[in-house]
Amino acid sequence: MSQDEALGPVELAVIGFPGSQFSGEIAPAVADLVASGTVSILDLLFITRDDDGTVAGFELSEVDDEIAGPYLELEGEAGALLSEEDMEAIGELLEPGSSALAIVWENTWARAFVTAVRNSQGVLLAHDRMDAETVAEALAEVGSDD
Fold first, then answer.
1. What is the side-by-side strand order in the sheet with 40-49?
2. Of all residues in the chain, what percent are helix, strand and coil, respectively (each to 5)?
3. Domain ranges within the chain, ordered by starting residue
4. Strand pairing partners for 106?
5. Which end of the chain is more exposed for a tag (fewer CB within 10 A), N or C?
6. Start-to-end CA span in the chain (Å)
7. pLDDT tens for each residue of 45-57
């Protein structure tokens, strides 16, 4: 991507797996998002916290084929955005004996919008993201007021 091209919003999601039970089910869902042009993968990192509390991070190329297999099909420029400090911070979220997948993606669907804002001299003043559970709870609360 050149300096002149718009970059859509970039997000980090951390998905925990109690007992380090990684599932390949996430990979096809992410692959569908990539194939449709909805997102672009910028980085993937597998993080584990051993029973003794030791935290380790592994790039896709460092993970056993059994775990990495479904993720190898993902297209993207994965690598090196997540730092050692990020890995440690994510590791602190994990219970001993569990793992997580940290995935950084660009919301490529928003590139045209970002370009339009830039071209109209607009400036982003605030942006926030709410998780689906919080929104569902808020909508349920609003619906119960009727």
1. 10-17, 98-106, 40-49, 55-58
2. 40, 20, 40
3. 10-121
4. 10, 40
5. C
6. 49
7. 889 999 999 999 8
